């Protein structure tokens, strides 16, 4: 709990999002309760190649956290799945342990949050859908297999360009065309991987339907951040109206 600020009485949630990612902040503001204060820092890299940028987002995390200066989040979320997929075994866990000791608050990565949520659901056999290609897609598959999950099906959500920035042009409709057939598979859960791809409309639409649960990077990250911060887990009934408001077309005179 944050008692020294007018805003954020439920807690201060720090979030790190890739520099051009338009989705993490938007979905976190929808998922988190209004009395949780969301404070964002950008994960930055000038590397021209996608995989190098993703690696640098995690390597430069100490600098991103230092930009909070005297602000101390209740918990911090690293909002990029691709970075974790590319790290050697053990590197991420060791780095986070060191950073938590240095900065004094817990740090949760999107991949750790996904693994936590899938296990909470009792999921062992999953279908994986992502906008990744080539080496990144292979790394994602290997990551979840190493985490002990059986990946029964892998589907690519196509982007217009090979650069991972192409993910930011996707909409939930693009993801929906790929995930809809997966709901008929004999799996325990469907994972939408990629924090830059909107997912909440699909999760809301799937709520209450039969078939395997649909989860995403941002959804799982928000759930885990709330858990660590001792905030009630967000439900569709809570955040559904905020999603509707956030995606409504503007009304009134044009600016």
- Residue share in β-strands: 15-25%
Architecture per CATH nomenclature, i.e. the level-2 architecture of the largest domain: 3-Layer(aba) Sandwich
Radius of gyration from CA coordinates: 18 Å
Name of the top-level CATH class of the largest domain: Alpha Beta
Question: What is the end-to-end distance?
Answer: 39 Å
> In this structure, how is the largest beta sheet organized?
4 strands, parallel
Average pLDDT rating: 95
SSE topology string: EHEHHEHHEHEHEHEHEHH
How many β-strand stretches?
8
Share of helical residues:
40-55%
Question: How many DSSP H or I helices?
Answer: 11
CATH topology of the largest domain: Rossmann fold
Provide a compact summary of the structure.
This protein is α/β, with parallel strands linked by helices. Helices cover 42% and strands 17% of the residues.
Protein described:
This protein is α/β, with parallel strands linked by helices and about 260 residues long. It is about 40% helix and about 15% strand. The chain has helices at about 25-30, 50-60, 60-65, 80-85, 90-105, 110-120, 135-145, 170-180, 200-205, 215-230, 235-245, and strands at about 10-20, 35-45, 75-80, 105-110, 125-130, 150-155, 190, 215. The strands form two sheets. A four-stranded parallel β-sheet has the order 2-1-3-4. The mean pLDDT is about 95. Its EC number is 5.2.1.1.
């Amino acid at each position: 709990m944050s008692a020294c600020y007018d805003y954020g009485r439920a807690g201060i949630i720090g979030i790190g999002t890739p520099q051009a990612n338009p989705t993490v902040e938007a979905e976190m503001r929808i998922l988190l309760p209004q009395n949780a204060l969301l404070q964002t820092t950008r994960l930055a890299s000038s590397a021209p190649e996608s995989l190098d940028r993703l690696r640098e987002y995690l390597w430069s995390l100490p600098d991103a956290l230092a930009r909070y200066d005297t602000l101390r989040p209740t918990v911090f979320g690293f909002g990029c799945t691709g970075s974790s997929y590319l790290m050697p075994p053990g590197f991420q866990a060791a780095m986070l342990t060191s950073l938590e000791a240095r900065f004094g608050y817990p740090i949760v990565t999107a991949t750790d949050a996904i693994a936590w949520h899938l296990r909470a659901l009792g999921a062992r056999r999953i279908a994986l859908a992502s906008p990744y290609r080539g080496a990144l897609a292979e790394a994602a598959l290997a990551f979840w297999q190493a985490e002990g999950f059986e990946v029964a099906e892998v589907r690519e959500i196509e982007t217009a360009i090979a650069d991972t920035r192409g993910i930011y042009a996707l909409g939930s409709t693009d993801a929906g065309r790929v995930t809809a057939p997966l709901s008929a598979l004999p799996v325990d859960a469907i994972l939408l991987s990629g924090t830059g791809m909107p997912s909440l409309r699909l999760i809301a639409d799937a709520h209450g339907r039969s078939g395997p649960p649909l989860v995403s990077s941002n959804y799982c990250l928000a759930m885990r951040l709330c858990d660590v911060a001792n905030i009630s887990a967000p439900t569709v009934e809570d955040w559904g109206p905020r999603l509707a408001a956030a995606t409504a077309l503007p009304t009134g005179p044009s600016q």
